[in-house]
């Protein structure tokens, strides 16, 4: 029964535990036989075992159960032991805690004291700050007075917030208003420093930094900065525009001027931009743009000023040294300008436009100078021409002088394409300069002018009249320009100025246009020479004809001196022309007189004269014979550039003039005999000057026959007598 | 410019003087004086009929020797003057009446071909000191006066009345004391026909006949670098004249500014012997030279009608043809048909587009100006 009671207790306790742990009771029959189950019934289990199992199995079960009981017993003992140990440990811990709390209480006491100290220190600090505040106006004032603006601003910045927060407190409002007043002064001082003309960039930077700390808007400062610097740059521009040189060497003056440009306007522009970027690192794009626009505008206006000034200073003198200095100056400006341009991040073509413009002006001037020099030379030669000058040497001399001038000009201009020159590394510039300015502007232009000047020399009359020999010399000069001088100058230019040899494209004037002008000029000069020389000779002949009474003149004893004189002159013309021109060939000449079909040789001519006996001289018959044999003498034939043609042209005009004079006179017997002698003499000596004797004979023939027609008593001399007189 | 072949008329004698028969206003007629020392000289009256392209002539023997200058009366067809040199080898001047002469508009062919022409000397313009005469000039327009210029530049003015009486009015002193001979002279049709220009070699002097001994009104020193051979006044513009000379140049002058010619043409290759304005179209100027050429020059920029004839206001003609450019200055045509020196050239008095030129061998050429030129001037 007690067993049952304990069993019941046990079950109750299990139930309670099960309830507590939430294990639901399962009324399962099977579980009654599970040894480890909750509803295990030992009696039922044993009954069941005895009934269902064999003995052997029973014995085995019994042994198994005994073993299990033994192992559970030992397990239980181990558990009890372990739990006891834990209890002992807990007791120790509690004891330890008791002592620890005692220490903590002590520490807490200490802490309490420290808090008091802190509070005291805070109060001290506050008092110090207050002291600072009360002292602030004085300090600000003194630092402003000492111009120690940054310190002042530092002080003010320190107290600004406090003053703002407690400004309405009566004890602070006084301080605040004092401070405000001083800060206003400070601001003014800073602004003054900002706008001061001679402010350094550092000061400027300081002002701006401080002002922005004082709460100025950076946009308005940037604007103000721009305006102030604009004013400064404007002043630089004005200074440069009114820059005057002190009469020193032009080249040096240009360098000095460019130096000044770089050091003032250009430098300041660069400085402005740099300073701006420095002090307004965070400037808005718009502010930045304003400044850039201003700087661009200044440079836009600077370039024309530089151009005008440079061109003005360099003046008309175009020496090599001058050009070198000019180019050096321009190059310097170019490099500085490029640097500024990089700062501005601008892609304007300022310097290339400027330099191209200046180069053009300079080359134009060089060309004009050259033409002036040539004009002076030509005038000099014209005015001081010595008729003893030998044509050959004179040609060399004049060509040398002319070439020398153009060489000098070209050498001066090569400065622009020197290897060390930065701007001339630009292909576009080199090309434009070489082709347009030097080749077209200087070379072509000046040579065209030269050819015109040479031609114009012919037209001058009166005191500007040039000596015939000079005209002949110049005709040779023109031919030499036509044949090789112009071409070799061009080759030189092509070599020096990077133009492909013989380059024809790019609308360049072909060299043939120039050489054709010279050919024309030489033709004009040559014709003019022929006119001048024959003018003198014809005048001599005409005067001699007018000064004699041909009706009553006495029997001829000699050739008239004037005829000898004419021959001498023709001989001089011949020797002059021979110095400068080739002989010329018979073929050339035959085209001159193609209309003429006179075919008698000299000997035939002579005999036909002899056959004109006094009795046969019937004027109308002679007239008709004349018409049969002589054809029109062409006086127009252009003078070929060879000796024969030149001399022949002079002879033709002279003899034709002689003929005209004869036709205006009336001759007596001796008069015509004198003409006969003169003509024979001319015939004797003129042939050597020309291949075309026939033409000479034909003209002399006509003179004599015209004289015969104009003769009242046409009795010619015996040929033998004529020969005798002429050979004497 | 197309050229029409000239009509050629050959004389058998040498000749240097030619003029139009000014009194004849309908027939194209020229007078030529021959220059022969040995044969009898004569005045050839040559008529050109444009339609039949025929040349007719009538010859008037000139017994007083070779003729150096022939000058017709400005409006009397039968009156001429010549400068001639006879047996005494002295240059003299005589005024003749020609007979027979066809009445105005009648062809020379209407004259009896068997009849002989006759030159009746009306007056010998012999000055008392018997100087050699260089030029005879008829007073332009009415021909009531004659001027003779002696070779040493003495000017004599003669009154010539229609009944043929000649009376010496003025003798001047020689204009020039130098030995320079008179080479050319002409009488200005302007300024009340009171001005006569005389060229002595390279210098030109213009005198007023009313004050002939008070020196020249103006002169051009060295107008040409060689002697002046002829000069002519622009018939329609009073301040303009042309000169020509041995330098081969024809120069046009504005007498108000004589420092330099307003136009200088050098179109001849030898001496220029004569220069003549066309009376109706003074932009056309002829010059003749010993280069055997006759040059028709345009001096349009100095002409009284510089842009050609003014356009009519007729609106119907407002066509595109109106856009013609004015004639440029310069050579229009150079005639090279002569084979010897051309000493004289003359515009016809009846047809302003016809002219004649005479070369030494006695060859007369009658030319017409190119038709295109005529059209460009007329229309």
From TrEMBL, chain A:
Domain (Exocyst complex component EXOC2/Sec5 N-terminal) ranges: 466-568
One Pfam family recorded for the sequence: Sec5
GO cellular component, one term: cytosol
UniProt KW keywords: Coiled coil, Golgi apparatus, Lipid transport, Protein transport, Transport
Coiled coil segments of this chain: 55-114
Biased composition (Low complexity): 602-611
InterPro entries associated with the record: Cullin_repeat-like_dom_sf (IPR016159), EXOC2/Sec5_N_dom (IPR039481), Vps51 (IPR014812)
Feature: compositional bias, Basic and acidic residues: 583-595
Compartments it resides in: Golgi apparatus, trans-Golgi network
A single GO BP: endocytic recycling
Record carries keyword Cell cycle: no
Disordered: region residues: 581-614
Similarity comment text for this entry: Belongs to the VPS51 family.
Subunit text: Component of the Golgi-associated retrograde protein (GARP) complex.
Function: Acts as component of the GARP complex that is involved in retrograde transport from early and late endosomes to the trans-Golgi network (TGN).
Protein name per its UniProtKB record: Vacuolar protein sorting-associated protein 51 homolog
The species this protein was found in: Daphnia magna
Lineage: Eukaryota, Metazoa, Ecdysozoa, Arthropoda, Crustacea
UniProtKB/TrEMBL annotation, chain B:
Superkingdom classification of source: Eukaryota
InterPro entries: Beta-prop_EIPR1-like (IPR059104), EIPR1 (IPR040323), WD40/YVTN_repeat-like_dom_sf (IPR015943), WD40_repeat_CS (IPR019775), WD40_repeat_dom_sf (IPR036322), WD40_rpt (IPR001680)
GO BP terms: protein ubiquitination
Keyword tags: Repeat, WD repeat
Occurrences of domain EIPR1-like beta-propeller (ranges): 6-296
Family membership: Belongs to the WD repeat EIPR1 family.
Protein name in the entry: Protein TSSC1
Species per Swiss-Prot/TrEMBL record: Daphnia magna
Organism ancestry: Eukaryota, Metazoa, Ecdysozoa, Arthropoda, Crustacea
């Amino acid at each position: 029964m007690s067993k049952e009671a304990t069993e019941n207790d046990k079950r109750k306790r299990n139930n309670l535990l099960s309830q507590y742990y939430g294990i639901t009771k399962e009324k399962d029959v099977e579980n009654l036989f599970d040894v480890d189950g909750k509803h295990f019934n030992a009696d039922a289990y044993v009954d069941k075992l005895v009934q269902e199992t064999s003995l052997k199995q029973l014995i085995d079960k019994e042994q198994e159960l005994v073993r299990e009981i033994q192992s559970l017993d030992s397990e239980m003992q181990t558990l009890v032991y372990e739990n006891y140990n834990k209890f002992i440990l807990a007791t120790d811990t509690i004891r330890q805690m008791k002592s620890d709390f005692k220490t903590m209480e002590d520490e807490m006491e200490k802490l309490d004291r420290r808090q008091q100290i802190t509070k005291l220190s805070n109060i001290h600090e506050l008092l110090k700050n207050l002291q600072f505040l009360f002292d602030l106006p004085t300090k600000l004032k003194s630092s402003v007075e000492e111009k120690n603006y940054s310190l002042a601003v530092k002080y003010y910045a320190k107290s600004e917030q406090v003053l703002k927060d407690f400004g309405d407190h009566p004890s602070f409002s006084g301080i605040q208003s004092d401070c405000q007043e001083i800060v206003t002064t400070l601001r003014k001082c800073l602004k003054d420093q900002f706008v001061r003309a001679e402010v350094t960039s550092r000061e400027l930077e300081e002002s701006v930094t401080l002002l922005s700390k004082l709460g100025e808007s950076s946009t308005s400062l940037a604007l103000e900065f721009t305006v102030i610097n604009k004013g400064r740059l404007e002043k630089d521009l004005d200074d440069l525009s009114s820059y005057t040189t002190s009469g020193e060497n032009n080249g040096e003056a240009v360098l000095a001027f460019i130096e000044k440009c770089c050091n003032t306007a250009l430098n300041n522009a660069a400085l402005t931009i740099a300073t701006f970027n420095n002090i307004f690192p965070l400037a808005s794009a718009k502010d930045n743009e304003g400044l850039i626009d201003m700087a661009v505008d200044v440079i836009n206006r600077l370039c024309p000023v530089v151009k005008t000034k440079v061109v003005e200073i360099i003046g008309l003198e175009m020496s090599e040294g001058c050009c070198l200095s000019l180019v050096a100056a321009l190059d310097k400006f170019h490099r500085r300008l490029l640097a500024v341009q990089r700062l501005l991040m601008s892609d304007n073509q300022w310097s290339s436009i400027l330099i191209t413009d200046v180069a053009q002006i300079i080359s134009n001037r060089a060309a004009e100078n050259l033409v002036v020099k040539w004009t002076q030379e030509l005038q000099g030669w014209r005015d001081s021409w010595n008729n003893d000058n030998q044509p050959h040497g004179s040609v060399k001399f004049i060509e040398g002088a002319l070439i020398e001038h153009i060489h000098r000009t070209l050498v001066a201009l090569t400065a622009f394409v020197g290897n060390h020159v930065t701007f001339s590394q630009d292909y576009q510039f080199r090309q434009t300069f070489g082709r347009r300015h030097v080749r077209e502007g200087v070379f072509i232009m000046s040579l065209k002018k030269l050819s015109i000047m040479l031609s114009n020399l012919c037209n001058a009359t009166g005191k500007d009249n040039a000596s015939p020999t000079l005209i002949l010399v110049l005709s040779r000069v023109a031919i030499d320009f036509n044949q090789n001088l112009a071409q070799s100058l061009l080759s030189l230019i092509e070599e020096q100025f990077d133009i492909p040899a013989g380059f024809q494209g790019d609308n360049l004037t072909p060299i043939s246009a120039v050489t054709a002008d010279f050919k024309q000029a030489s033709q004009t000069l040559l014709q003019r020479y022929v006119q001048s020389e024959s003018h003198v000779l014809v005048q001599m002949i005409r005067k001699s004809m007018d000064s004699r009474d041909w009706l009553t003149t006495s029997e001829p004893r000699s050739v008239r001196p004037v005829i000898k004189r004419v021959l001498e002159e023709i001989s001089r013309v011949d020797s002059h022309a021979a110095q400068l021109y080739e002989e010329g060939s018979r073929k050339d000449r035959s085209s001159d007189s193609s209309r003429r079909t006179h075919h008698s040789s000299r000997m035939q001519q002579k005999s036909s004269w002899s056959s004109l006996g006094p009795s046969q001289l019937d004027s109308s018959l002679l007239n008709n014979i004349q018409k049969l044999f002589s054809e029109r003498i062409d006086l127009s034939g252009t003078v070929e550039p060879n000796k024969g043609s030149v001399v022949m042209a002079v002879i033709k005009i002279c003899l034709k003039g002689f003929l005209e004079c004869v036709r205006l006179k009336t001759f007596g017997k001796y008069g015509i005999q004198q003409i006969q002698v003169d003509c024979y003499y001319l015939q004797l000596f003129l042939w050597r000057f020309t291949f075309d004797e026939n033409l000479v004979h034909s003209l002399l023939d006509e003179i004599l026959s015209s004289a015969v027609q104009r003769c009242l008593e046409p009795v010619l001399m015996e040929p033998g007598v004529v020969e005798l007189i002429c050979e004497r | 410019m197309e050229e029409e072949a000239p009509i050629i008329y050959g004389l058998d004698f040498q000749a240097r003087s030619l003029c139009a028969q000014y009194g004849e206003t309908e027939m194209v007629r020229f007078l030529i004086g021959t220059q022969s020392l040995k044969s009898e000289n004569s005045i050839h009256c040559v008529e050109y009929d444009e339609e039949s392209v025929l040349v007719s002539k009538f010859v008037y023997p000139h017994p007083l020797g070779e003729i150096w200058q022939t000058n017709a009366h400005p409006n009397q067809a039968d009156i001429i003057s010549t400068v001639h040199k006879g047996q005494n080898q002295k240059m003299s001047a005589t005024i003749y009446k020609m007979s027979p002469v066809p009445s105005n508009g009648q062809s020379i062919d209407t004259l009896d071909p068997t009849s002989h022409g006759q030159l009746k000397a009306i007056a010998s313009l012999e000055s008392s000191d018997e100087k050699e005469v260089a030029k005879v000039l008829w007073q332009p327009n009415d021909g009531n006066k004659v001027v003779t210029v002696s070779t040493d530049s003495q000017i004599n003015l003669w009154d010539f009345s229609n009944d043929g009486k000649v009376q010496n009015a003025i003798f001047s002193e020689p204009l020039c004391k130098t030995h320079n001979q008179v080479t050319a002279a002409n009488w200005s049709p302007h300024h009340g026909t009171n001005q006569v220009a005389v060229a002595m070699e390279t210098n030109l002097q213009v005198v007023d006949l009313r004050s002939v001994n008070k020196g020249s009104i103006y002169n051009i020193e060295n107008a040409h670098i060689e002697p002046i051979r002829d000069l002519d006044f622009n018939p329609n513009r009073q301040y303009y004249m042309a000169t020509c000379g041995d330098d081969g140049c024809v120069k046009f002058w504005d007498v108000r500014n004589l420092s330099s010619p307003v136009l200088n043409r050098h179109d001849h290759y030898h001496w220029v012997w004569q220069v003549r304005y066309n009376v109706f179209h003074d932009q056309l100027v002829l010059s003749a030279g010993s280069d055997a050429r006759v040059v028709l020059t345009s001096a349009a920029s100095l002409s009284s009608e510089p842009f050609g004839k003014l356009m009519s206001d007729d609106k119907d003609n407002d066509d595109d043809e109106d856009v013609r450019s004015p004639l440029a200055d310069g050579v229009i045509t150079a005639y090279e048909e002569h084979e010897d020196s051309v000493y004289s050239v003359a515009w016809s008095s009846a047809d302003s587009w016809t002219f004649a030129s005479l070369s030494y061998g006695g060859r007369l050429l009658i030319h017409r100006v190119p038709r295109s030129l005529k059209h460009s001037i007329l229309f």
